[in-house]
Amino acid sequence: MNERHVIDHLDARQPEIVDWLKAFLRIPSVSADPSFAPHMHEARRFLLERLQRIGLSGVRLLDGGGEPAVYGEWNGAPGQPTLMVYGHYDVQPADPLDQWHTPPFEPTEVGGRLYGRGTSDVKGSTAIALEVIASFLAVQGRCPVNIKVFLEGEEETGSPSLRTIVERHRALLQADAVLSADGGRASADVPTINTGARGNAQLEVRLRTAHKDLHSGRYGGGVRNALHEMARLVASLHHPDGGVAVKGFHDGAASPTERQRADTAAFPYDEAAFFSDVGGSAHGEPGYTARERITLRPALDVNGLWGGYTGGGGKTIVPCEAQAKLTTRVVAGQDPRAVIHAVLHHLQRHCPPGCTLDVVAMNDGSPASTLAPHHPLVSAAEAVLERESGLRPIHVRLGASVPVTAIFKEMLGIDTLMFGFNLPDEDVHAPNEFFRLASIRQGTRAWTLLLAELAKHPPASFHVG
Amino acid sequence: MNERHVIDHLDARQPEIVDWLKAFLRIPSVSADPSFAPHMHEARRFLLERLQRIGLSGVRLLDGGGEPAVYGEWNGAPGQPTLMVYGHYDVQPADPLDQWHTPPFEPTEVGGRLYGRGTSDVKGSTAIALEVIASFLAVQGRCPVNIKVFLEGEEETGSPSLRTIVERHRALLQADAVLSADGGRASADVPTINTGARGNAQLEVRLRTAHKDLHSGRYGGGVRNALHEMARLVASLHHPDGGVAVKGFHDGAASPTERQRADTAAFPYDEAAFFSDVGGSAHGEPGYTARERITLRPALDVNGLWGGYTGGGGKTIVPCEAQAKLTTRVVAGQDPRAVIHAVLHHLQRHCPPGCTLDVVAMNDGSPASTLAPHHPLVSAAEAVLERESGLRPIHVRLGASVPVTAIFKEMLGIDTLMFGFNLPDEDVHAPNEFFRLASIRQGTRAWTLLLAELAKHPPASFHVG
């Protein structure tokens, strides 16, 4: 088998691949907002057609009661490993719209970058994976391994029906491992292999101090103010140095191993640039480097907070209500459910008399995922990346969460290699998200080599714990 | 002179007065919303016509570049004091409309109450003042004192052009004192005299921790979060017991006098009911009763706060920006400008490294107003209210602010007696605002007696400092 022809085919098809990706990006498949439901439907039709056209069989939707996943398979390599290729077709909302320099759903090339919502997260890398399969089938009539494509529609909303989908289609989804287009590269300079990700969980609370907003002239100075109390609650979550002050928050968190700390130190990471690029400043748990804090340690962030009058001008009220959205990041060894409950208990314990704290939303979250250092997925990726770059790949962990990896591990017993080609500076979940056009060629080469490399490992070797 | 005939005339005219008030209330004179400008014009025409009909001279608009004031005078009592009668014809917006039980601009009588926007604040009390003048002129052909009616059109938007109006018409507006229809009664059970009001000032700030919102997976735990920092700033403004923790915030605040504390204690005030009516709980500066805190002591409230993602569901970001609106209430002896600057300096001093704090809006505010206990305005009001009720009136201070009183004091050197007849529970600035119909008769009697009583004081006696 010669992957050279597949790579040549992919290289020749680059303009066509970019065009297809742009068409995919023009579909505003925002899963969080119900008013975008027709576009979610449109995105599924678009993918079903593509999977059929590239020659997959069993192309269909897998429904779990929410946004269905798009599925297709190729089973022409008996005895070879079966890889589930994971991507997601939903994207984050584009708000705040006024901060985009180009229309979020009209992909725009500027200086080697493709701007648009979903370019980096994760339609770009999803396109890479699909087009590699397409070229294998077009050039060779076969893939090196068996393939099960699984494209989720709820990644950006926390995968609420993924468990149901897996439960309903457990037999169909049997595989030896998962290759994920989500979970990208850590550096443009050195090859990196994702050996895991933090998990997460979320909580939304409402604090009330009165039945209604009160006139600040008539009540100010004599009554509790919901914003003052919410501020005090939020301030109590962290120590001034940035460490989390919630009792039980760190329970179970595995201390970073020597190998992890060494890998982290080996990673070429310009801390000053990391912060100055975004205008931010280093802050967090004492005793850890910034890079360790954001990959190896748990974190707690308030993602949104509001209360009182937020319109133009002033309004002299004592607000009666304040609301906050919080998320945790958890690491290996932690139960995300226990961690988010620790946060809730902290808030309840610190809620002052005369105030009520209600849970608006809460989920059990998903745990961190971890790939053993000598797992065949890791070995294959190391071989490919070293061949492509001439450099020894560095093991890194993702600070972000890919809950599906934990769900696949728990329900199907299989591990995931995150092999996306996006880069950390591409403003995912923010205005002006972009994907480097060069990453498409790098990604299609690497995925081609990876599928071939994985065929060298016996199926049973992927099931290592 | 016998006020009996005037009161009889007013009593006989009650249905006619209510009808006129209703016509006034049907004009949606919302000053805050430019789309209501035609109705502001309509309200002025309506008032100009009324002032002319009741026999005032020099009826005209006084323009300061915003919504003009409506003016008219009666100068037929040479040697007697000249009183400026203040009211305002603008009202608050009626939003949220869906919470009204009756149409806000169709005044509706229900069980002795007149519901509608502006009933209590302050068209009801404005009508009382005008109708008393009308009856004096109708019955006696004269008033006991000289009158200058001044009806503002921008009270609900912070009186932006009032200073210009006064500046341009300084000679016209010379008077010995102001009688204000705004600033109401503190109790339905005992007669009260407003001897002053707290002043106020406002500030809006924006805190930034980065150039853009960051992915909480990629940055969470390693970077400052604007909402955490804003929460810490806001929490630092108050001690846990509710007292203000800002250095310099209390500077200049006159300690409550023995008389003030005795008056406050004498005021029949059911603290438990005050809080349970609104579902709130007592909280504030130690060493003071709730009533003292909201009338005699300065206060600092955050009126609105927001940052990050506030839509449906979750968004895993580290917010880069948080914004807050704050207002102070200041008491006698304080410079509101110094107080609001103390708040700003506190925020700046506590703003952590790597964060920027910008002032979005700030004003110099207006100081508290105070009437000396033996001021002729107070003596006259005491005489009237004691005669009417058989009870010794209690001196109270308003917790709310009436900036016009400070402006008249500063620019014209004259004091204001707030002699409105609304009551604290009438949901001003809120849905279902109402005014008690019985207050119209009580108010027209008291204003009649007050004008007669004021005539007993020589003009110079009103200028007591």
From TrEMBL, chains A, B:
The lineage's top-level taxon is Bacteria
Q: Return the protein name.
A: Dipeptidase
**What GO molecular functions are on record for this protein?**
metal ion binding; peptidase activity
Q: Which Pfam families match?
A: M20_dimer (PF07687), Peptidase_M20 (PF01546)
Key words of the record: Hydrolase, Metal-binding, Protease
Q: Which InterPro entries does the annotation name?
A: Cyt/Met_Dipeptidase (IPR051458), Peptidase_M20 (IPR002933), Peptidase_M20_dimer (IPR011650)
Keyword Metal-binding included in the entry's annotation: yes
Q: Name one GO biological process term.
A: proteolysis
| Gene3D superfamilies documented for this protein | 3.30.70.360, Zn peptidases
User: Is Methyltransferase included in the keywords of this UniProt record?
Assistant: no
* Record organism: Variovorax gossypii
Q: Which residues form a coiled coil?
A: none
The residues covered by the Peptidase M20 dimerisation domain are 198-354
